[in-house]
Amino acid sequence: MSESRNNQLLKITEIEGRGRALVASQPLKAGQVLLRDSPLLLYTAVALKNGDPSNFCTNCFRKLLLHDDAARSKVLKCPNCSYHALFCSPNCQSIALSTSHTPWVCQALNCIRYSRSLLDPDAQIQAIFLISAYNLAVVSPSSFQLLLSLQGESPAIPNPQTLALHSFISSLSPPQSFAGFGFSPELTAALLAKDKQNAFGLMDPIQENNNNSERSVRAYGIYPKASFFNHDCLPNACRFDYVDTAEDNNTDIIIRAIHDIQEGREICLSYFPVNWSYKDRQRRLMDDYGFTCDCDRCKVEANWKDDNDDNMESDDDDDEQMMAGGSDDQEEEEDVEGGGGDNEDFPHAYFFVKYVCERENCGGTLAPLPPSPEGTPSNVLECNVCGLLRTEEDEEEEDGVMSD
User: Fold this and answer.
1) C-beta of residue 178 within 8 angstroms of C-beta of residue 134
2) Fewest CB atoms within 10 A around its CB: which of 43, 82, 146, 310?
3) Do 58 and 184 fall into the same domain?
4) Does 123 lie in the same domain as 254?
5) Looking at the structure, do residues 25 and 70 belong to the same domain, yes or no?
6) Region Disordered: which residues (predicted)?
7) How many domains does the chain have?
């Protein structure tokens, strides 16, 4: 979808109590691609200290083919570092060495790998982000300014961990051009706040025939337009990525409408799998984003007894939809659900029947495939986690079995 077309579908507006948000500037159809966004920066989610070489391309994060000698011979290495930066192609290597994996980044990542001062894996990941962000200030000052313009407020006084991270970055002999942005603990704190509020996780896929496998984050990315989506516990849109399968721009994320959306409605994403319990959702939103959700679903579930929360328990390791932005208006959902209100205890049950993947240990959200060029809606729904395709006929058959 072209940039101009994206601009026709969505507009940024200020919503009282919610800040900047994206709303529909025209009626939207189920499955319609609402936004395709490219990352400002990407960085690995794998701690480097004492770690094994990555099996992903350092530039595009595709899974590398390392199953035999012939496949391994096609994988390229960084010529300068022992950090084990690998690339899937000469093009990725060339791009990375001039942008995201510059000589300073190469040196800095080696320091993280062998430093004794950053033993905490979480601190390592934060340091990797800061290196990527400060490198962005050198290779693309305008992109760095855009990063600083995203939502996310830092504390007035940097905390001890932030001060330690800033001291570590300072020890890496950063380029002099950093000074143009006022390199300081306060700037480091501001960057960490942007990352916390706006980072999307690019996840490993679910392994076939292994429902008990844990999914991990392959990389984090900051997506400038997608960061404006606010959260809702019953979203009307969801995010797809095709890191290993897309031929070009494979780290782009695509936002598709889950169902029809009226003009003027805020477009909502869920920051985590929708099958999480009320307590887990509220805890994550407060810890990571600093707010309490009072959407229609949360108002219902807040009155449930504690033992009912067990019905919606989920796996905290399933962070495939960690993302920023979103919305909180559920009137549209209720219109679509129709008979969902027959269940007084959980009036939104219809959403889970129709739009939540039934595959064990998945927890993904289903959205229809995009309509045809002529505007004909698709009756095939795709899971944004495992890629499962389900037709509306399959759903009707399942409903018939359940009713019998």
Assistant:
1) yes
2) 310
3) yes
4) no
5) no
6) 306-344
7) 2
Per-residue model confidence as pLDDT tens digits over 126-155: 999 999 999 999 999 999 999 999 988 888
Domain that holds residue 372: 8-38+229-303+345-403
For 66-83, how does the pLDDT look when each residue is reduced to its tens digit (9 = 90+)? 777 777 888 998 988 766
Q: Is 80 exceeded by the pLDDT of residue 49?
A: no
The residue that leads in pLDDT, 241 or 7, is 241
Phi then psi for residue 24, to 5 deg, are -75, 125
Co-location of 22 and 76 in the same domain: no
Strands (E) located in 83-226: 86-87, 199-203, 217-222
* Together in a domain, 154 and 24: no
Final residue of a domain: which of 200, 215, 241? Answer: 200
What is the mean pLDDT of the segment spanning 300-322? 55
59-63, 64-68, 183-187: the lowest-pLDDT one: 64-68
Residues 280, 132 share a domain: no
Position of tokens 């890496």? 172
When comparing pLDDT for 344 and 265, which is higher? Answer: 265
18 to each of 14, 190, 228, 279, how far by Cα in Å?
8, 20, 10, 21
For residue 91, report the phi and psi dihedrals to the nearest 5 degrees: -65, -45
**Is residue 335 assigned to a domain?**
no
CA neighbor of 226 nearest in space, from 239, 217, 236: 239
State the pTM of this model: 0.84
Mean pLDDT on 329-334: 42
Within a domain: 100 = yes
Same domain, 132 and 144: yes
117-121 average pLDDT score: 72
State the amino acid at position 46 in one-letter form. V
The pLDDT of residue 397 is: 57
Same domain flag for 117 and 48: yes
β-pairing, 217-222 with 380-383? Answer: unpaired
Query: pLDDT higher for 68 or 396?
Result: 68
In a domain, 377, yes or no: yes
DSSP H helices in 229-295 = 278-284
**Angle 387-390-395 from CA coordinates, rounded to 5°:** 145
The CATH number of whichever domain residue 253 belongs to comes to 2.170.270.10
Tokens of 83: 């950090």
Question: CA distances (Å), 365 to each of 66, 124, 132, 244, 320, in order?
Answer: 31, 31, 31, 19, 11
Rounded to whole angstroms, how far apart are CA atoms 173 and 160? 21
